[in-house]
Amino acid sequence: MLLHHIPGLLSQPQQEWTVIRNENVSVQGMYTGYILIVAAIAPLCALIGTTLLGWRIGAGEPVKLTFDSAFQIAIAFYMAILVATFTIGMLIHWMSQTYGGEKPLHVCLALAAYTATPLFLVGVMQLYPTLWLNFVVGLPALAYTVYLLYTGVPVMMEIPAERGFLFATSILAVGLVALVGLLAVTAALWGIGVGPRFTN
């Protein structure tokens, strides 16, 4: 398992990126040893949180989802994370030609997956689905994810820091576009009736 990189990424990312770069882990190995595990944190915690605890709007009663509805959403959420991680890895691989840091796909996927580590881990907050709390905890996790991206690109792609900054900025822009697209698809699905179902 590749979970042993998490403490290093959170405490000394520069050194840990070098260790990760020197590993030769296949795409399949990345999924089975890391991505499939950490990507399950948020969907699983959201399934538990939205069915058992629910969330409050103001001082009202907690709002809960039915288990069937929450389970379907959790599965869709999980699949979206898996596909998004692979897609970002593919885009990094494709863009690497522009920045002179061509690397095999497994290296680009490792960069995408390990960069997202703080976002994967903060998914545990879905156990207590309170909007303000998730926002307060999620913002620092997002900021650290961006930091990991900017420190990881030059090391993983073995390019100068200046070029790495431009490359990381391009990756960040692609990630934001993907997020907006995912939100648009979610809104469209809810608009046609494919959405959450609440308990009475």
Can you walk through the features of this model?
The chain is mainly alpha-helical and 200 residues long. It has one domain. Helices cover 73% and strands 0% of the residues. The protein is elongated, with a radius of gyration of 18 Å.
Features:
200 residues; mainly alpha; 0% strand; elongated
For this entry, what is the oligomeric state of its chains?
single chain
State the low-pLDDT regions, or none.
Answer: none
Distance between the termini: 42 Å
Beta-strand portion reads: under 5%
User: How many independent structural domains?
Assistant: 1
Summary, kept brief:
With 200 residues, this protein is mainly α. Helices cover 73% and strands 0% of the residues.
Write the layout of secondary structure elements.
Elements: H1 5-11, H2 13-22, H3 27-38, H4 41-53, H5 67-95, H6 105-115, H7 117-122, H8 131-157, H9 161-191
Helix pairs in contact: 1-2, 2-8, 3-6, 4-5, 5-6, 5-9, 6-8, 8-9
